[in-house]
Specification:
By secondary structure, this protein is mostly beta strands. It has no helices and eleven strands. The chain has strands spanning 4-7, 10-13, 18-24, 31-39, 46-52, 57-59, 67-72, 77-82, 91-100, 116-117, 121-126. Strands 2, 4, 5, 6, 9, 10 and 11 form a seven-stranded mixed beta sheet that branches.
C-alpha cells in the first residue's frame, strides 16, 4: 500500500508564494502519473496540475503560469510551487498518484483513475 503525505500548506497574503510537497512511501512500478487536486467545501475536487513519467506536465487554466509541478523520482516526492497566490486559490490541496506498467497518457486520467491519495493540506490566501 502506498501512502502519500502532503506538507507545506498554510495561510498567506495574496501575491505571496507557497510550496507544497507530497512524499510517497514507495513507488510500486517504474511508471506513474501524479497530480495535485484542490477542493473547496461544496464543490467537486478539481485537478490543477499533472505530471508523470511520460514527461508531460499539464495545468488547469486557473493556475497556468503561476504554479509549477515537479517530481523527484529519486526522492519519491511531488512538489507544487505556487506563486502569486490569489484568494480564489484557497482550498484543501491533495496529491494523488497511480502506478502502472506500460504506457499511459497522464493528461487524460480522470480523478477516479488515481489509486492513491494524500490526506490533504489547507491553503488559505487572504486579500
Amino acid at each position: 500500500q502506498v501512502q502519500l503525505v502532503e506538507s507545506g500548506g498554510g495561510s498567506v497574503q495574496a501575491g505571496e508564494s507557497l510550496r507544497l510537497s507530497c512524499a510517497a512511501s514507495q513507488y510500486t512500478t517504474d511508471n506513474n502519473c501524479m497530480a495535485w487536486f484542490r477542493q473547496v467545501p461544496g464543490s467537486e475536487r478539481e485537478v490543477i496540475a499533472i505530471t508523470g513519467t511520460d514527461g508531460s506536465t499539464n495545468y488547469a487554466e486557473s493556475v497556468r503560469g503561476r504554479f509549477t509541478i515537479s517530481q523527484d523520482n529519486s526522492k519519491k516526492t511531488l512538489s507544487l510551487q505556487m506563486n502569486n497566490l490569489k484568494p480564489e486559490d484557497t482550498a484543501m490541496y491533495y496529491c494523488a498518484a497511480t502506478f502502472f506498467w506500460g504506457i499511459r497518457r497522464c493528461a487524460v486520467l480522470s480523478a477516479s483513475e488515481y489509486k492513491y491519495w494524500g490526506q490533504g493540506t489547507q491553503v488559505t490566501v487572504s486579500s
